[in-house]
Write a structure and sequence with these properties.
By secondary structure, this protein is of the alpha+beta class. About 65% of the residues lie in helices and about 5% in strands.
Length: about 475
């Protein structure tokens, strides 16, 4: 067999050997159902102890006594389906690093001529083996770019995991706050319902007027509307919490009952949040790695100005059965295209990334300052509201005694009671707002802050007063 045919057969076998094996990944109901199955809590307990994350800490996870805010954050990171697609970017980045390090394949070509009616002449052929060596010039820069981009992707994944964890923690505190508000609102509704019953009996005995009954009914309707609104908000937040934890819509998520909504926050000084911010905020670090990748990409684009060069070997046999063997060299002549277009694009992209990093850092600093100011303002409002509670309780007691003595009207008494109930709910809302601001400060600063202490016992319900039996 002629040598050129042997060479072609060898090339064909090489291509067949290099071909990868295809494995199907069906998108059917069985595969989707398996992916959407609730997480295995035993596996979650093991993973939570060995979690490795730049910001989240490993914890002793035990959901059997209800989820704490930190446990909800870890569960969200380990079980939230939205993070699976985010983590898949790691595989893409790793593949890009692999691709950037691959050398270009050599090229084989062959041709032949077959003489017709030419006695004594033989078939001629030509064999060429060539390799494009210009890829070696940019290979190092492209590998550097791919590695920096892979590091950027890794940090961006961790940043998104941190955001999901903080979102789950926020949902837990919202559920706790709404449950407390709902409990207080239901107590107020029940008290007003009992009061209405007493007023109706007094009206039947001609001790009170229809105006008094209408006032009691209006107060009850307002309290009932508040209860319905809070139930709706609580139902919505429970669904949001289940979704963030990777649980099906109907799943019941138990929360630890001894988790406090803080009245005060012990925070470091403002300078502590700004110091080292560029190294704590994972999105900023990811942007820096992305900028390093783009720097390498610009360098690769500049190196790509070097003309394309192919070296090889040329072997022929002519029809007279004469053999030749010699080197070949082919290169582009950079007259029109010197890769200036790609260089301009990559430089513009680098400038965009630089400005994006500066803007993100500026926004982070501004956001921290804003959150600290809002925390201070909310803490002042909360202190003022808590200070008003004893005054309102005393006012209710005075109206209660005056009403029993016949020296006050029932409308004033109901007004004082409603003011106390509204102030109690306002305090709960301010506590919830305060803890959400703290979580926002964690996100803005990339810094984990200690959770509020757990309550030693269930907090006492606010003092409730109502007219003495038989005396509306």
């Amino acid at each position: 067999m002629p040598s050129h045919r042997l060479l072609l057969w060898a090339g064909a076998l090489g291509v067949a050997a290099a071909a990868g094996c295809y494995r199907a990944m069906p998108l059917d109901s069985e595969a989707v159902g398996k992916a959407l199955a609730p997480p295995n809590m035993e596996a979650i307990r093991v993973q939570a102890k060995t979690l490795q994350h730049p910001l989240l800490r490993p914890i002793e996870f035990d959901e059997r006594d209800g989820l704490s805010p930190d446990e909800a954050a870890i569960l969200a990171v380990l079980a939230n389906p939205s993070l699976r697609a985010v983590r898949d970017q790691r595989g893409i980045a790793s593949a890009q690093v692999l691709q950037a390090g691959l050398l270009p394949n050599p090229a084989l070509s062959s041709g032949g001529e077959f003489p017709l009616r030419a006695p004594g002449e033989v078939n001629s052929y030509a064999l060429d083996a060539a390799w494009d060596i210009s890829g070696l010039i940019t290979r190092g820069a492209k590998r550097d770019a791919a590695k920096a981009q892979a590091a950027s992707v890794e940090l961006d994944v961790a940043w998104q995991e941190w955001q999901v964890a903080e979102g789950a923690k926020t949902a837990v505190y919202r559920v706790i706050g709404l449950e407390a508000q709902l409990t207080g609102a239901e107590q107020v509704e029940q008290r007003l319902r009992d009061n209405l019953k007493i007023v109706k009996e007094a009206v039947d005995q001609h001790l009170k007027t229809a105006v008094d009954q209408a006032a009691a009914e209006a107060a009850l309707q307002e309290a009932h509307a508040t209860v319905l609104d809070l139930r709706q908000d609580l139902r919505k937040e429970r669904l949001a919490l289940a979704r963030s934890l990777g649980q099906p819509p109907g799943a019941e998520v138990r929360i630890q009952k001894d988790t406090l909504l803080p009245s005060r926050l012990a925070l470091p000084a403002a300078d502590e949040f700004l110091k080292g911010l560029e190294d704590r905020r994972l999105d900023l670090v990811a942007l820096r790695r992305g900028y390093e990748s783009q720097e390498a990409t610009v360098r690769a684009a500049i190196l790509a100005q070097f003309p394309k060069v192919e070296v090889g070997i040329h072997h022929t046999r002519d029809s007279g059965n004469f053999f030749t063997l010699g080197p070949t060299l082919a290169f582009d002549v950079p007259i029109f295209d010197r890769n200036q277009g790609n260089i301009a694009i990559e430089k513009a992209t680098r400038r965009k990334l630089f400005d994006e990093y500066v803007n993100r850092l500026f926004e982070a600093r501004s956001e921290i300052a804003t959150l600290l100011a809002e925390i201070e303002s909310t803490a002042d409002k909360l202190a003022s509201a808590e200070g008003a509670v004893p005054i309102l309780e005393e006012l209710v007691r005075v109206y209660e005694d005056a009403l029993a003595a016949g020296n006050a009207d029932i409308l004033s008494f109901y007004g004082a009671q409603n003011d106390l109930a509204k102030k109690t709910i306002e305090i709960l809302k301010l506590k919830q707002e305060l803890v959400e601001l703290r979580i926002g400060l964690e996100l803005a600063s990339g810094r984990y802050l200690e959770e509020p202490a757990r309550a030693p016992a269930a907090p006492a319900a606010p003092r409730e007063t109502q007219p003495k039996e038989g005396r509306p």
